[in-house]
Amino acid sequence: MARKKKELPLLEGIEITDVAAEGKAMARVDDLVVFVPYVVPGDVVDLQLTRKKHSYAEATAVAFHRMSPHRVEPVCPHFGVCGGCKWQCLSYEEQLRWKQKQVVDNLTRIGKIELPQVSPILGSARTLEYRNKLEFGFSNKRWLTREEITGGVVYEHPEAVGFHTSGSFDKILPIDECHLMDGVNNSLRNGIRDYAYQHGLSFYDQREHTGLLRGMMIRLSNTGELMLLVQFCITTDTERAQAMALLEWVRTSFPQVTSLLWVDNQKYNDTFGDLPVQCHSGTDHIYLRMGSLRFKVGPKSFYQTNTEQAHILYNVVRQFAYEGTEKAAGTEKPLVYDLYTGTGTIANFVADGARSVVGIEYVPEAIEDARLNSQINGIQNTAFFAGDMKDILTADFIQRHGRPNVIITDPPRAGMHKDVVDVILQAAPERIVYVSCNPATQARDLQLLDGHYRVSRVQPVDMFPHTQHVENVVLLLRR
Questions:
Q1: Mean of pLDDT values over 443-464
Q2: What is the pLDDT of residue 328?
Q3: Which of 76, 82, 279, 437 is catalytic?
Q4: How far apart are CA 81 and CA 240, in angstroms?
Q5: Residue ranges per domain, the chain?
Q6: Does the domain formed by 94-126+292-478 have CATH 3.40.50.150?
Q7: pLDDT digits (tens, 9 = 90+) for 162-179
Q8: Rounded to whole angstroms, how far apart are CA atoms 421 and 412?
Q9: Fold (topology level) of 133-290
Q10: Buried-most residue among 4, 14, 368, 472 (CB within 10 A)?
């Protein structure tokens, strides 16, 4: 006989007091920490526990007794279901305050190092329509909300184009309106969806690996250019004809698309980095401008998704790299190493202040883009190398290319490999500029560097309004 599942309790009149990871908020009930989505500090709510462990629980708010003064009305009609932009219900001023606190807490509690006063976070001038890149998926199974299921809602079209939902790999939440990018994203996505409905195009089935329409990516430039890449799964001549007809319809219906691309992806995952991309019309790239520089961006290129805020971030990096290093006329400029250089945006952005910049990156295609971006901008004092950081950045490499005066490092969320930290310590630059999208792993790495370097400046930058994510730049000076 099956054991009856134990019902979890309802907690009444609980005040939300803090923010937590993954965009959730937090309450404390006796010795129990309770994590709750879509509420903000200051809300007083009834909480229905959904999961309970020894020292923490997860819950949903089922009733509000008092709304926080920091609560605002979300702009997006999909808020609470989509799973993105989870802080839309929190005023932007409070978002910045909590992000600042996140940086300070991580550097203090994890790093356990001496810190200067952390500079006030640099907020984003745009809190909506700030992204230059969005990706949407297609599925023959639309995600249904609890209300739609219990209400027995039946849709004429069970297919959807939108975002993947957490907890379901094969369903897509249909998106009608997304405020993360200029409204052209809505026109393109909804236009292609309606065309597909009208012409009977099949949507991808994640379980069966069939269906023509699989995904789409939009990249928008501050130069007025627009890239659209449609990802198909073409298995028959009929599907190929349908795909080409769709692309031709896009070309004539959306003349603002300057780069119309497509890829045939029959793999078991949605990544296309290892697949050839075909150009249907226009160019196979767009350009994004940052200050006086132009960067060529292809469908596989990495580029910071908040264009305007990236310029502010890189200005901080350049300031930290060179501030106070001005010397008498005739002395050499510093030699700079840019670790995890990607497509060389930081390397090229800071090159005017350096004797030379050496960029290192794991992805060979990114290094090709970095070299090309130097050529496009007439920059001749950069050199780029591809390979695993801990294998490339060795004592022998430093001996060949020179001991850096400045090291800029912008690692992925996991932070730096300990071998990389060791080589940085051996290189002994006068200063290190550490850019991070994860202050927790940054704090861990700062602790490893602390014996030889002191933290001189800390500058948080908000790249992603309405999310819990924060970028942080730290300047370290050799002791």
A1: 97
A2: 46
A3: 437
A4: 34
A5: 10-71, 94-126+292-478, 133-290
A6: yes
A7: 998 877 778 899 999 999
A8: 14
A9: OB fold (Dihydrolipoamide Acetyltransferase, E2P) (2.40.50)
A10: 472
Q: How distant, in Å, are the alpha carbons of 164, 177, 335, 355 from that of 352?
A: 42, 42, 11, 8
Q: Which amino acid type is present at position 466?
A: H
Specify the amino acid at residue 146: R
Same-fold call for 94-126+292-478 versus 133-290: no
- The answer to whether the predicted template modeling score (pTM) of the entire model surpasses 0.90 is yes
CA distance 52 to 439: 28
State the virtual CA torsion across 360, 365, 368, 372 in degrees, nearest 10.
-120
Active site residue 89: no
Give residue-wise pLDDT tens across range 77-128.
999 888 889 999 999 999 999 999 999 999 999 999 999 999 999 999 999 9
CA neighbours within 13 Å on the CB side: how many for 154? Answer: 0
Q: Supply 51's token pair.
A: 């999961």
Quick: pLDDT tens for 338-370. 999 999 999 999 999 999 999 999 888 889 999
